[in-house]
Design a protein that fits this description.
Strand content: 15-25%
Low-confidence stretches: none
Largest sheet: 7 strands, mixed
Shape: globular
Structural class: alpha/beta
Number of strands: 10
Number of domains: 1
CATH superfamily: Spore Coat Polysaccharide Biosynthesis Protein SpsA, Chain A
Helix content: 25-40%
Number of helices: 12
Distance between the termini: 37 Å
CATH architecture: Alpha-Beta Complex
Strand order of the largest sheet: 3-2-1-4-8-6-9
Mean pLDDT: 95
CATH topology: Spore Coat Polysaccharide Biosynthesis Protein SpsA, Chain A
Order of helices and strands: EHEHEHEEHEEHHHHHEHHEEH
Length: 272
């Protein structure tokens, strides 16, 4: 069976959240996909979750892991990109539960010369904790009535979950958010990512995904906004790994990428 898409899921020591995310890919309307967990050095609990899922799913599941040496998401993502078997890659995070049409939507809108830019719907911690395997298989966790019954407040952003195809298309066109490469929900052709040499491995947290997208733009690619069409709900968590020096380093790299219109990084998939 040919694989239509490779799903790269980044994770680091969030086995409970990752398990919920993996369950959501067993519910997809398209099953000829592979799952690659890009694991930035998690402890054995994460491997246990992945092994348990592998034993119950028909999906091809790879665990791409390296030792914990601080925030090295870009390095493990590059390793996962190389390991992918499909020519089309969907990148997301281990805290983003995918609606059942998530993969199908990315494949529907894929087009040569473009990458796709999605978003997420943030959930508070109490609702994140409540979501069970049954809530994912029934898709209740994407149902606005179920979410409100469990404490979700009313908001314009709720349109992400309630919009039908026509309204979603309109909102995609009207949203002020840039169609940038977002690590939690973006997709593109593997060849395009290879031609810009993947992620810049000097970069840690803060704009590392967008810098990749900026090099894709410099290469001549365009982007499509699908934030109201490709839906995933984001489980709450702390970000103790964020440090000001990370943000500053990444800012300088992005400034150089823009100023020099760079399409290539010397610190990516291939090293000099």
């Amino acid at each position: 069976m040919s694989i239509k898409a490779s799903i790269i899921i980044s994770t680091y020591n969030q086995p409970v959240w990752l398990e919920k995310v993996l369950w959501s890919y067993d519910c997809q309307t398209i099953s000829d996909i592979e799952i690659l967990i890009a694991d930035d050095g998690s402890t054995p609990e994460t491997k246990m979750v992945i092994d348990a899922f592998r034993n119950t799913t028909k999906l091809d599941v790879q665990h791409v892991w390296h030792e914990d040496n601080g925030f090295q998401k870009t390095i493990i993502l590059n390793k996962a990109i190389i390991a992918c078997k499909s020519d089309y890659l969907i990148l997301t995070d281990g805290d983003c539960i995918a609606r059942k049409d998530f993969v199908a939507t990315h494949l529907k809108y894929r087009e040569k010369g473009f990458f796709l830019s999605g978003g997420y719907f943030k959930l508070p911690m109490d609702i994140s904790d409540k979501i069970t395997k049954d809530d994912i298989s029934s898709q209740d966790c994407f149902d606005i009535s179920w979410l409100k019954a469990n404490g979700l407040n009313s908001s314009f952003k709720n349109n992400k979950l309630t919009a039908g195809p026509i309204k979603a298309k309109l909102l995609n066109a009207l949203t002020p958010s840039n169609a940038s490469w977002n690590g939690h929900n973006s997709s593109g052709w593997k060849q395009d990512l290879i031609e810009v040499n993947g992620f810049d491995e000097r970069m840690q947290y803060g704009g590392e995904d967008r810098e990749l997208g900026e090099r894709l733009f410099n290469k001549g690619l365009k982007s499509k906004q699908i934030r109201y069409s490709a839906i995933c709900v984001h489980l709450d968590h702390e970000r103790g790994y964020v440090k000001p020096e990370m943000i500053e380093t990444n800012k300088k790299i992005r400034e150089t990428t823009k100023k020099d219109s760079r399409t290539w990084t010397d610190f990516g998939l291939i090293k000099p």
